Each structure stands twice: as C-alpha cells, then as structure tokens.
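Entries read chain and fold; for instance:
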Amino acid sequence: MKFSFPALLSTLLIGFLPLLTQAEPALEHTLSNGMKVIVKEDHRAPTVAHMIWYRIGSTDEVNGTTGVAHALEHMMFKGTKTLKPGEFSARVAALGGRENAFTSKDYTAYFQQIEKSRLEKVMALEADRMASLVFDKEEFAKEIRVVMEERRWRTEDQPIPLLYEALNAAAFSAHPYHHPVVGWMSDLQNMTVEDAKVWHDRWYAPNNAIMVVSGDVNARAVFALAEKHFGRIQAKKLPRTKPQEEPPQKGLRRIVVKAPAENPYVALAFKAPTLRDVEKDVDPYALEVLSAVLDGYDNARLNAKLVRTDRVANSAGASYSNVARGPVLFVLDGVPAQGTTTDQLEKLLRAEVERVAKEGVSEEELKRVKAQLVAGQVYKRDSIFGQAMEIGMMEASGLSHRDIDRTIDKLKTVTAQQVQDVARRYFSDDTLTVATLVPLPLSEKKAPPPSGLRH
C-alpha cells in the first residue's frame, strides 16, 4: 500500500495529538480581594513566566481619550512611591529576567520571564505598581511624545497597518473596535496625565486582574505568594460597563488608502461570529477550519492556486480568530502579481471561498487540514511563555482556561458539511468591507524607530 506524504503526516499527527493534550491542568485560586490566580506547572526547565492581565483595553475607551489604555501601559514603567522612573526594568534585568507589556483591544498585560527562585521579587514589583503608581506630569509629557512617535512609526509610516486602521474604522461603525489601540493622534496630542491617572484609578484593581504563572513552580506556593503581595491591595468598585453592539451591516463598504508603498494590496473583511459558548457553538470552529483550508499550511488553497499555479498574486492569505470580547472579522488578503489588478484579485479571493461553498472539501483534505490546525494549536503551547499567553488570552477575553483543550476537541469534530455551510453563509456583500491600498511613490528611506518603544 502506498501513502502520499501529506496523508501519512495527517495520520501520524491525528494519532499523536491525544498524547500532546494530556498535560497537567492549570490550577486556579481567587484571593479574598477578587484577584484570580492561575498556575500552570511545567517542570521541564527552571524558569517561570509571570503575567498580570487587566481586563481592560482600547475597547473600553471613549471618544476624546482613545489610546489612554496604551499610554498608561507606558506610565507603568515610570515609577512608584518606592521606585524611580525606569527602576522597574532595571531591577528585572539585574535579576537576569526580561520583561515587557502589551495593550490590545480587549486587555492590557505585563510580564516577566525569570529564573524560578526570583519569582517572588518580580511579583512584589508588580504589586507595587498596581497599588502605588506615581503620575509625574513631566514624565507623562515625555512618554506621550514616545507614544505619538510610536504611532507615526508603526502606523502612519507603514502602509499595511495604516490600511488596517482604516479598515477597522469602516467595518465597525458603532463598536469601539472602530478606534485604533494606539489611539487617534489628536487624542494623544491632547491627552493629560490626569487622563492616565483616572484610567489607572478606575480599572487597575485586583478584582479586575488575572495573574498567570507558568513554569517550574508549585501552585500552592504561588497562591501563598500572591496572597502575600497582592492580597493586601483593596478591591475597587468597578464601573458598570454597558453593551456596545455593532448594528447589522446593510451593504458592502469600500475604502481606498493611498500611501507610499512598493505594491498594491487588498483586504476583504467579512463580519463573522465570535466564540461565546465553547460547547454549543459550531460556526466559529467551522470558520477556523475554513481559514486553514484556505491558508493553514504551505500548500493550502490560496497559495497553491493563486500564487503558485495561476501566478496572479505575489501573496494571498486568510485569517480568522474567534476569541475576542467583541465582534470579529474573517479576512482575505493579497498582493496582486504584475498584470493583475486589485479588483481582479478581490474577485479571485472570493472565488476560492465560493468554490468551497459549491464543491465543499474532501474528507482527505479535511483530515489533513484539521491535523495541521490542531497540531499548530497544541505546539504553540510548547513554551512556558506560550502556555501563560494562551491562558491569559482566554480568561481576559471572557472564556475559561479550562476550555482550552475542549476547543481543540471541538475542532476535531468539524465536518466537511459544516465547513461548506459557513462558506455559504458568511461571505456575502452585506457583511463585507473592502480596503484597497493604492501605492504612492516611495519617499526617502525612513528614519529608524525611536528609542523608548516598549514593544
């Protein structure tokens, strides 16, 4: 009997995956002040990832102060009642660790990776800046200039990020995902240190935070350390947040962005469902498999047909993530090859989805794609930091870390019919926003990014 290599690989992966998912579960404890602590023991190396996730991001901002969540993230490194500006990072470095932070639409997180015996020291540092951050007007004035420069360097001077900023602003008319995480420049220019302090005082509380620790630790010992350093911080009465629903889209939206760039580019964003009920939802898993059918591995459909065979695109892709606090998009994108227009590539990208809608996928292709997809989900947790990241993202997005393995089980059960069904139902003009990049002549070589950017 002969096997093709892809078929053999799929068979081996499917058989091996149950072994990969049989790991010790994470343990959870909630402090008396409402702070959730989740510990994932992994004793392969004497290192630890320590993360503090705040359930607050740019989606919680209002007009006039967009970007304040990210601006505060910068201020968290600018001193406390016991630490001078920059001393937090200096102490972590002296301990042999590395640290950083990131802000997203849904959450803000701070992390350190450290040798296991130094865990308590970085935990004490995080507790200190949760409770006693200092808001110095001069330090804020310097840091907001860094944030504005970060916006210029990472968005305004970069054609693809600039296009996606415009795409989100067009796709979401009412939901705050309309706003960029870094904020609009006019809001940054008018932001004050009081804006950052109000944000911190309102949202940075133990009962709005999740501690995630993964690595060579004992969970009970971590819970005791968390109680020692964070348990003394009082809970706050958190503001009541109101639902911010995106109204149904009633027709195709189209935008054009002109910017200096080497090539034209097109992105098609379709409104798609977010994972809300891990057990009952079906379509989010089927859409994830569809995304993998189109662009989940090197020889997936978009790359195989549009780039390699027909040579009408220099690149073509699909992306979809179903974990978020708000609405999500299924995106098709590509760079047309010479002789192909963005309008033509747009039609060709949609044609590949329509082909799935009409013809479906074979059981062999489905098996191969699911094996690749599930293996990718499992392998990304191979690192200690990756495990902490996935736990934190699930929890901060409103799901449970206990459902991580269950989402993999659900992906395995997706049928060819379910993939075909979602390809038929979610890709109409009524849910679509198209963004096209029209390249302008490249300007002189841009200056390197400024120092002081944190991530």
Notes: DSSP finds 16 helices and eleven strands in the chain. Residues 1-22 have pLDDT under 50 and may be disordered. The domain at 253-440 is CATH 3.30.830.10 (Cytochrome Bc1 Complex; Chain A, domain 1).
